[in-house]
Amino acid sequence: MSAVDAELVEMMSAVFAAHREQHEPGEGVAELWSRLDELGLVRLTGSEESGGSGAGWAEAAELLRTAVWNGVRIPLAEHDLLACWLLDIVGLPVDDARRTACLLDDDGAARDVPWAADSESVVLLWQSATGYQAADVAASSLSITAGHNNAGEPRDGVRVDLAALTGSPVPDEAVAQFMRRAALVRAVQVCAALDRILALSVAYSRERTQFGRPLAKFQAVQNLVADIAAESALARAATDGALAEALRSDWSSPHLDFLVAVARSCAGHAASVVVRNAHQVHGAIGTTKEHRLHEFTMPALAWRSEYGSVAHWDEVLTDHATGAGADGLWALVTATGG
Asked: How far apart are CA 20 and CA 26, in angstroms?
C-alpha cells in the first residue's frame, strides 16, 4: 500500500485526541461528525464529483486506526466505505445524510446493524427474484430495534416490508465485495485496538513497581507482553497483506477471499491472547472504569465477531485448504495458485 501523508495522519490524530479529551466513548458523535465533515473526512474515499474527498482505502484505513487508537467510536467505515460506496456502485445520489448499510434476509430483516438507530438513512441490500437490489431508505421509515454490542456501540435490528421496496440492481460481484470490505474494516479496527493494548501494557509494566522493581523486570510479565506483541504483529501483517492485495487488484483478486479469511482468523485468535494477557499484566486496575484498557479490549472482542465470527472464518480457511488439496496447499498459502 502507498504511504499516507504524515501531515494528514497528524491532523486525524489531533482531531480524535481532542474529541476524546472532552467526551467519553460514544458521546458527542454529532459534534465530531460535523467537525470531520468540515475537514472532508466523512466521505474520504468518495469521488470529488459526488462530493467526496477522492482519497483511497489507505487513507481510510489510517482514519479508522487513529479513531480506534484514541478510543473514538463513530460510523465512518459504515458510512463511507460501505453505504456511500454502494450508492456510487448502483448510481444513486449521495447527500449529506449520515448512513449505514445492511444485507437483509428473505424476511426483510437484519440483525446487529451498526449505528442504524443513529443514522438518517440506511442503504438496504437484498436478494429479489431477479437478483440483488439496493435502496437508500430513510431510517424513519424503517422498523428499527435499538441494541448494542459488548463494547456499547449501537447494533440494531432492522426490518422492512420487501414488497414495498423499490431497488436498483446490484451486480453479484458488488455484493461479494461489500462483504469483503465489511470484513476487512473490522480486521483493521481489531488490529488498531490490539496495537493500543500493546502500548498500554508496555507503559504500565514499565511504570508499575512490585517488590521494588518495575513489572517489566519480571520474566513472567515479559513473556505476557511478548506474546501480546507477537499476536498483534501477526494479525496486523495478515490484515495489511489482505488489504494490499485488495487495493492492488481493485478488489478482484482470486486470492482475496482466502486472504480476508486469514486476516479475520488471525485477528480473531490474536484478540483472545492479547486481551487475556493485557488484563493479567494490568491486574485489577485494568478492569476498572478509571483505566482506559477496557476501551480497547471490549471493542476488540466485539469486532472480531462482526461480519463473521472467528469460527466462521476458521471454517472458511478449512474449506480453502481442503479444496486446494495436498498438491495445491503451498500455492494457496503463498497466493500463487490459480
From this structure: 10
pLDDT, tens digit (0-9, with 9 covering 90-100), for 258-315:
999 999 999 999 999 999 999 999 998 888 878 999 999 999 999 999 999 999 999 9
Q: Which of 36, 34, 81 is nearest to 61 (CA)?
A: 81
Sign of CA dihedral 320, 326, 327, 331: positive
**Per-residue DSSP letter, 79:** I
Sheet containing 143-145, strands listed edge to edge, beginning at the edge strand earlier in sequence: 109-114, 155-159, 143-145
Which of 165, 160, 155, 126 is closest to 143 using CA atoms? 160
3-state helix, strand, coil in the chain (%, to 5): 60, 15, 30
Q: What gap in Å lies between CA 179 and CA 223, rounded to an integer?
A: 37
Instruction: Return the residue matching grid coordinates 459488548.
Output: 150
- Burial class for 58, CB neighbours closer than 10 Å (0-12, 13-18, 19+): middle
Residues 157/102, Cβ–Cβ less than 8 Å? no
In this structure, the number of other CB atoms found within 10 A of the CB of residue 209 comes to: 11
Sign of CA dihedral 112, 113, 117, 118: positive
Q: Give residue 335's pLDDT.
A: 66
Predicted confidence (pLDDT) per residue in 205-258, tens digit = 999 988 889 999 999 999 999 999 999 999 999 999 999 999 999 999 999 999
- Rounded Cα distance, 218 and 87, in Å: 54
Residue with cell 446490484: 170
CA distances from 178 to 125, 156, 183 (A): 10, 19, 9
pTM listed for this prediction: 0.96
